[in-house]
Amino acid sequence: MMTNTQKEAELIARLARQHGVADGAVMAVLEALRRGGGTMAQFSHVDFGGMSQWSSGMTMVGDMFDDSLKAKLNTIAAELSAYLREHPAKPQRDDTNVSYRSAGMAHAGSWWPEELGSPSAAGSQNNMRYAAFPERSRLVIDDHGKTEIYDTGDHRISGVSQSQSTASTLTFVSQHGVVRVSDLKRVSAT
Questions:
Q1: How many beta carbons lie within 10 A of that of residue 132, not counting itself?
Q2: Which single residue of 68, 82, 110, 160 has CA 20 to 30 Å from 55?
Q3: What does the buried/exposed string (b/e) look like for 101-114 if buried means 16 or more CB atoms within 10 Å of the residue's CB?
Q4: How many CB atoms lie under 10 A from the CB of residue 91?
Q5: What's the pLDDT tens digit per position in 95-117?
Q6: CA-CA distance, 108 to 15, in Å (whole number)?
Q7: Which residues does 172 contact at the CB level (< 8 Å), separation at least 6?
Q8: Nearest 5°: CA angle at 156, between 167 and 138?
Q9: Contact 35, 121 (CB under 8 A)
């Protein structure tokens, strides 16, 4: 019988072959999807033109006018997302608690509070950055060095938009539609 690790390796190799990308490109999408709870991905890989994002209904690649590359990423990510739904992460016990292991971002050198763990998505532009933690229902925003933490409630953030005005603001997309930061309850600030 084939193990999940073997199934995953075969899936990665097959998708890479079918779509003419490196195994590492498919792996980058898979790991980003794991961080995004299987529903969204933000990553960078040369085979997708650099910084890329995916969620159902939204695909962005490094060259925003390359529809062929967007279609390729959309197909790969959709199949990997389905795979992750069929093969959910299994809890692994340690001496003190249950944790879910993934290849998420390590905390070393990160700017968000360590107790939040690994974000499903993180990004920055100019002097503003954000990190989303859906498993903890938290969103952390650092705006010019002022960090604020928000309770996202039942929102599963899957996209972000930043206005380019002098008063830059962030809006997010969840399963309920557009979410403004001002709609969320602030739980702490530093």
A1: 32
A2: 110
A3: eeebbeeeeeebbe
A4: 10
A5: 333 333 333 444 445 788 888 88
A6: 32
A7: 132, 139, 155, 157, 159, 160, 161, 178, 179, 181
A8: 65
A9: yes
- Token pair listed for 119: 């974000």
Domain parsing of the chain, residue ranges: 4-86, 117-189
pLDDT digits (tens, 9 = 90+) for 5-59: 888 899 999 999 999 999 999 999 998 888 888 888 888 889 999 889 998 888 9
Question: Using CA atoms, how far apart are residues 77 and 92, in angstroms rounded to an integer?
Answer: 26
CB contact set of 135 (below 8 Å; sequence gap of 6+): 37, 100, 117, 120
Q: Which two tokens mark 132? A: 């989303």
| Positive/negative CA dihedral, 82, 87, 93, 97 | positive
DSSP state at residue 60: E
List strands edge to edge, sheet with 40-45: 40-45, 50-55, 58-60
**CA dist., res. 172 & res. 190, Å (int):** 22
